[in-house]
């Protein structure tokens, strides 16, 4: 039985659906800081800074697995670094403590944001230098170390992945740097043009949401004796720069126009991240695989958004 925090976010809203389909609707408790418009399945309001309520909810629900997604993303964290530290680290610590006390299997995502400008940028290794220059990156590296500590010191079965930019059509991301790769699809349908805040030539790792959700399930179901790493596995499906995704969209919307108005804050964040990371450890240790490349993702995104935005 699974408790999910941040269940109304970009990952959470779709992961809850997938977990309910896989493990039974009654076995997933979704929580978030605010109530959704319509409640679908078990839902409770939970502020991850309230450790006592978090413990009570997990205990009452008889949870055996904790999926902690509530966090501030990179661009928001740069605007509010102190809030980001308090929420990202305080929330994570509360979730790890509950998982230790109730012996829950634990997942909380890291990110390519856990790497910095001094990290090798191409084919970034699983084990390498991590000196991020953003508060979000500091939170992610500290989070990786904290999750490994809870595994080594207390035996909590913590597992994590370094997500690349995630692209989806169900729930838009909030406050990320890679969000341009989501916005572009919406704008292509709604306006036939997009003004990118990330400069041409800026490569970042990306992944379509269905592959990201499958990766969480595959990692959490993996035989622990095969895991040499835990927090956190590099995973990526593709690496592209803005003009490449624009060209892919143009194949379907020939009149689509792309322009650039670089946002220095988010460009600085993007420039500090890898161009492409090496996923071989995830492939070897738990069979990580992807279904979607840029071409296949674009067909699906445009098709789904045409219906959604009609
Ligand atoms: C962000 N989408 O942009 C998130 C993610 C790798 C990117 O961490 O902050």
UniProtKB/TrEMBL annotation:
This is L-threonine 3-dehydrogenase. GO terms for molecular function: L-threonine 3-dehydrogenase activity. It holds the Pfam family Epimerase. InterPro entries: Epimerase_deHydtase, NAD(P)-bd_dom_sf, NAD(P)_epim/dehydratase. Belongs to the NAD(P)-dependent epimerase/dehydratase family. Residues 2-235 form the NAD-dependent epimerase/dehydratase domain. GO terms for biological process: L-threonine catabolic process.
């Amino acid at each position: 039985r699974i408790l999910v925090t941040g269940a109304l976010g970009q990952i959470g809203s779709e992961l809850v659906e997938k977990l309910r389909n896989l493990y039974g609707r009654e076995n997933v408790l979704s929580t978030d800081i605010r109530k959704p418009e319509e409640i679908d399945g078990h839902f409770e309001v939970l502020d991850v800074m309230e450790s006592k309520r978090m413990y009570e909810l997990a205990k009452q629900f008889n949870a055996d697995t904790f999926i902690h997604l509530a966090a501030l993303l990179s661009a928001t964290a740069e605007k509010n670094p102190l809030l980001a530290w308090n929420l990202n680290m305080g929330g994570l610590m509360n979730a790890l403590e509950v998982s230790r006390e109730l012996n829950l299997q634990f997942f909380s995502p890291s990110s390519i944001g856990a790497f910095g400008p001094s990290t090798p940028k191409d084919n970034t290794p699983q084990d390498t230098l991590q000196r991020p220059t953003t508060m979000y990156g500091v939170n992610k590296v500290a989070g990786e170390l904290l999750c490994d500590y809870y595994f080594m010191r207390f035996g909590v079965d913590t597992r994590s992945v370094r997500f690349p930019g995630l692209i989806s059509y169900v729930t838009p991301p909030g406050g990320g740097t890679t969000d341009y790769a989501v916005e572009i699809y919406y704008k292509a349908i709604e306006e036939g043009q997009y003004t990118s805040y990330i400069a041409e030539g800026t490569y970042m790792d990306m992944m379509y949401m269905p592959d990201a959700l499958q990766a969480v399930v595959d990692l959490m179901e993996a035989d622990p004796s095969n895991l040499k790493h835990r927090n956190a596995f590099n995973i990526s499906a593709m690496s592209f720069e803005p003009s490449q995704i624009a060209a892919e969209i143009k194949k379907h919307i020939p009149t689509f126009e792309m322009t650039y108005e670089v946002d220095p804050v988010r460009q600085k964040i993007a420039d500090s991240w890898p161009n492409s990371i090496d996923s071989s450890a995830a492939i070897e240790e738990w069979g990580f695989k992807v279904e979607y490349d840029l071409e296949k993702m674009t067909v699906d995104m445009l098709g789904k958004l045409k219906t959604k935005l009609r």
